[in-house]
Design brief:
Low-confidence stretches of chain A: none
Radius of gyration of chain A: 30 Å
Distance between the termini of chain A: 76 Å
Helix content of chain A: 55-70%
Mean pLDDT of chain A: 86
Order of helices and strands of chain A: HHHHHHHHHHHEHEEHHEHEEHHHHHHH
Strand order of the largest sheet of chain A: 1-2-3
Shape of chain A: globular
CATH superfamily of the largest domain in chain A: SLC41 divalent cation transporters, integral membrane domain
Largest sheet of chain A: 3 strands, mixed
CATH class of the largest domain in chain A: Mainly Alpha
Number of helices of chain A: 22
Largest interface: A-B, 125 and 125 residues
Oligomer: homodimer
CATH architecture of the largest domain in chain A: Orthogonal Bundle
Number of strands of chain A: 6
Strand content of chain A: 5-15%
C-alpha cells in the first residue's frame, strides 16, 4: 500500500492511531514519537488534536510533543487550533515556548498571540528583539477581517536597479525565512512598491538583465484596511498565489499568500450559510460547533427566531380576524400548511440563488439585472405553480372529495403565493445589497415572514370571493 | 489615484468602460485596444463579458478582440466563461482558433474542448500534433469532479540522480511552458514519482548537491479518479500550492494547482448551499443564474417542492381529522403559523450547523459525536424554548386576552416542537452522512416536513388534553 496516496492515508492513519493508543497505555513514548515522524506535520497536528481532547491523555501527549524535533514542534504547533495551542502553552517551559513562537511564520505568530492571555503575551514579547516587538504590536492592532490581519511581513523585496544575478544572490541569502519566494516585490529607494517579478521569470532570464526590465508594473495590490472578502475575490479572479499589501502612503508592508485565502473563503462561506439559516454569530468567533457553549449557540439563534415569532403573531392575528369565516368552511384550515410551506420553500429557493449569485458576482444590484431577475422568476413561478397546482387540484377533487370551488380557491392562492414568494425572494437580496446591507443576513427571515403573512391574506380574500364566506 | 490599488480599480474600471462604450459608437477600435491593454487579462475578460452580452456590440467587440496582441488574446480567452468563449470561436478564423487553443495552458484547453461542439473539436484536433492529440483524448475521458479533470500535464519533472545545477538548467530550459515551476517532481527511471522538491529548496541549495538528497519523500499525492472535493480538503489541510496526480500504477500523470482548487471550493460550496435550500441541479451545470433557462430553473426546484407539498398534504390531513375539535376552539388556528414557523426555523438552524460542521470535519458521523450533538441541542432548545414561550405566554394572556389554559397549550407545544426540531435537525444530517448520502441534499426538506407534521400532532394532542376538546 502506497502511503503517499491520499486515498490510503485515512486507513494508514487509523492504523497508526490504534498503535499509538496502545503505546500510550504502555508509556512507550519514543515509539510514539517515531510513529508520528512518519507523517506530515499537518497529520501529526490532527493526531494531537485527538489526544489533547482526552483529559487522561493530555499530560502524556505533552510528553511526546516535547520529544519531537524542535522544527516539527514548531510546525505542529502552527497547525493546531487555538484552544489546543493554549493547552500546550500552559504545559511547556518558557524556554520552549519562546523557541516555538520565535520560529513560527510571522502571520501564525500573530494568530497565536491574539489568542493568548495578556500576561503570557507580555512574557513572550520581553524575549523578542525590539524591532520585531514593534512590528508585532503593529500587526496586533489591525482589526479582524482586514487585509492587515492576514498578511505576513516575510517576503522578498528587490531593488529595481539590481541585475538578475544580484537578485538571485539576495534570494539565496534571505530566502530561507520568507513565506514565499515565488513572487518578489520590487521597490524604489523610497520603499514604494513599483513592480513585481516572479521567481520563475528570474530563473529563466539571463543573468545580466535588470530587474526593472523584467518586472510587471500592472500588478494589483491591496491596502492594509481592505476587507479580507474583497481580497479573496481578487485572488479568485486573477488566480494569484500571493498579493502585496501597502499602507496609505503606498509603502509595501506585507504580502498575503493563497493558503491564508483558502481559510478566508471557508470562513466567509460558513458565515453566509449560517446567516441564510437565520443564525447571527454575535462575536464572529470561529469556534467549532462542539466547542461553542450552549448559551452562545442559543444567543446566536434567538434574534431571528424572535423576529420570526413576532411576524408569525401578525399572521396569526390575520387568521384570528377571519375566525368566523374560517369556522363556516373549516376544511380551509387543512390547506394552511400547504400554502405556508410551499410559499416559504419557493421564496427560500429564489433568495438563496440570488444571494449566491450576488456573492459570486453573477448578478449586480442594478435596475437592469433586477428587471431580468423579475422576468425570469415570474416565468419560473408560472412553470412551478402550474405543476404544483395541477397536482393539488386533482388531489383535492379526487382524494379529499371537496367541491371544485374549494379546489379552485386553494390552487389559485397557491399560484399567487408562489409568484409573490419567488419575486420577493428575487428582489429582497438585491435591495439589501443595494442598500449596503448583507443580503445573507437580511433576506431569508424577512422573506419567510412576508410570504407567510401574504399567503394567509391572499388565501382568505380569495376564499371570501369564490366561496362567498 | 494609484491604479494598482484594488480599492481604486472598480472606479478606474467604470471610467474606462464609459470611454470604451463611446469609442464603440465611433468605431475607434485602436483606442479601445490601447485602453484594454492598460489592464490585466482577467480585467479585460471581465470587460469583454459585458460587451459580448449585447447583440449590437458583439461583432464590434470581436473586431477589437482580433486586434489584441496574440498572447493577450489567449489569456483573455482562457478567463472568459464558456458561453462567451463559444461566441468568439464562432466568429474567428480557423487559424486564429488553432493558435489560441494551441497556446492555452493544457487544463484550460481541456475545459474549452469539453464545451465545444464535436465537429469543431475534431477540426482543432486535426491541427494538433499526434502525441498531444492522444493526451487530449485521455484527459477528455476523465469524468467530471475527479482529480483527472482538473489536473494539468504541464509540470517540471526531475531525475533523482541530477545535481542542483543540472536541475536548474533543466528548469530554465523547459520552465517557460509549465503551469508552475515552484514544485518539481522527482521520478525514478520507471516514471514512478519518488519525491518532490520545491524550487525554493533548489535555489538556496549548493550547486553540487544531488536532487535525491534534497527531495521530500513524505509527500501526499492523489489518484486520477479521486474525488475533487477530497483533493480540495487536502489542499486546505496541508496548505499546498500544487499536488501531484498518479495513475493506478503510481506513474506521475499530472499536477493540480491551487488556483483550480479555489474554483472547486466555490463550486462545492454553491452546490451545498443550493441543496440546503431545496434545489437539485439535475445536470451539475455551472451556468450562471441569469444564463440558465427558465425551464431548467423550474426543473431544479420542483423535486423537493413536490416532496414537501405531499408532506404538507399529510399535515393537512391531520388538521382535517381534528376538524371538529378545531371548530369548537377556533382561536387555536391562529397559533398554527407560530408553531409551524418556529419549528421549521429552529430545525433549519440546527441542521445547517450540522451540515456545515460535517463538511468542515468538525463533527464526525459516529455515535460519540451524535451523543454530544443531542445533548447540546437538547440544552440549546431548552434555552431557546424558555425565552420564546415566556414571550408568547405573556402575549397570549395580555394582548390576545385568552385564558391561561390556551396560553399553556400553545407554549407547551412550542417548547416540545422546538426540542423535537432541534434534535431532529441535529440527527438527520449525521444519519445521512453515516448512510453515505449527501446531508446537504437530504436534510432540510425532510426535517421541515417532519417538523410540520409533528408540530400539528403535538399541538392538537396537547389541546385535547388541556382544553378537553
Amino acid at each position: 500500500m502506497d502511503k503517499n496516496l491520499l486515498l490510503n492515508r485515512d486507513e494508514a492513519f487509523e492504523e497508526s492511531m490504534g498503535k499509538i493508543y496502545q503505546w500510550f497505555e504502555e508509556k512507550m513514548y519514543f515509539k510514539i514519537k517515531d510513529e508520528f515522524l512518519k507523517y506530515n506535520e499537518a497529520d501529526i497536528a490532527e493526531m494531537f488534536e485527538e489526544f489533547l481532547s482526552y483529559d487522561d491523555l493530555l499530560t502524556r501527549a505533552i510528553v511526546v510533543y516535547r520529544l519531537l524535533p524542535k522544527s516539527v514542534m514548531v510546525d505542529v504547533f502552527a497547525y493546531l487550533p487555538s484552544d489546543d495551542q493554549l493547552k500546550i502553552v500552559e504545559r511547556i517551559t518558557d524556554a520552549e515556548l519562546n523557541y516555538i513562537i520565535g520560529e513560527m511564520d510571522f502571520d501564525d505568530k500573530i494568530d497565536i498571540l491574539e489568542e493568548l492571555p495578556a500576561t503570557l503575551v507580555n512574557r513572550i514579547l520581553e524575549n523578542t528583539p525590539k524591532t520585531e516587538r514593534k512590528l508585532i504590536n503593529t500587526f496586533l492592532n489591525y482589526p479582524d477581517d482586514c487585509a492587515g490581519s492576514i498578511m505576513t511581513p516575510d517576503f522578498i523585496s528587490l531593488q529595481k536597479e539590481w541585475t538578475v544575478k544580484e537578485a538571485m544572490a539576495h534570494i539565496k541569502e534571505v530566502g530561507m525565512d520568507t513565506e514565499t519566494i515565488y513572487t518578489c516585490y520590487v521597490k524604489d529607494g523610497a520603499y514604494k512598491l513599483v513592480g513585481i517579478v516572479s521567481l520563475r521569470t528570474l530563473v529563466i532570464a539571463p543573468d545580466e538583465e535588470r530587474v526593472m526590465n523584467l518586472m510587471h508594473t500592472d500588478f494589483v495590490c491591496v491596502q492594509v484596511n481592505d476587507d479580507q472578502e474583497e481580497v479573496s475575490e481578487a485572488f479568485k479572479k486573477y488566480g494569484f498565489i500571493a498579493m502585496p499589501v501597502v499602507d496609505k502612503e503606498g509603502r509595501l508592508v506585507g504580502i498575503i499568500t493563497v493558503d491564508d485565502i483558502l481559510e478566508v473563503i471557508e470562513e466567509e462561506n460558513t458565515e453566509d450559510i449560517e446567516r441564510m439559516a437565520g443564525i447571527i454569530d454575535m462575536e464572529q468567533s470561529d469556534e467549532d460547533y462542539l466547542d461553542k457553549s450552549v448559551w452562545k449557540h442559543a444567543r446566536n439563534r434567538l434574534p431571528w427566531l424572535l423576529f420570526m415569532m413576532f411576524s408569525a403573531m401578525v399572521t396569526g392575528a390575520v387568521l384570528n380576524a377571519f375566525e368566523e369565516q374560517l369556522s363556516t368552511v373549516i376544511v380551509l384550515v387543512s390547506y394552511i400548511p400547504l400554502l405556508m410551506g410551499t410559499g416559504g420553500n419557493t421564496g427560500a429557493q429564489a433568495s438563496t440563488l440570488m444571494i449566491r449569485g450576488l456573492s459570486l458576482g453573477e448578478i449586480e444590484p442594478c435596475l437592469e439585472d433586477a428587471g431580468k431577475v423579475l422576468w425570469k422568476e415570474l416565468r419560473i413561478s408560472l412553470c412551478v405553480g402550474a405543476v404544483l397546482s395541477t397536482v393539488n387540484f386533482l388531489k383535492i377533487l379526487i382524494i379529499d372529495q371537496q367541491t371544485p370551488l374549494v379546489a379552485l380557491t386553494v390552487c389559485l392562492s397557491l399560484i399567487l403565493v408562489i409568484m409573490f414568494a419567488k419575486m420577493l425572494g428575487g428582489m429582497v437580496p438585491l435591495a439589501a445589497e443595494k442598500l449596503g446591507l448583507d443580503p445573507a443576513l437580511m433576506a431569508n427571515p424577512i422573506i419567510a415572514s412576508l410570504v407567510d403573512l401574504a399567503s394567509m391574506l391572499v388565501y382568505l380574500c380569495i376564499a371570501m370571493v369564490i366561496l362567498g364566506i
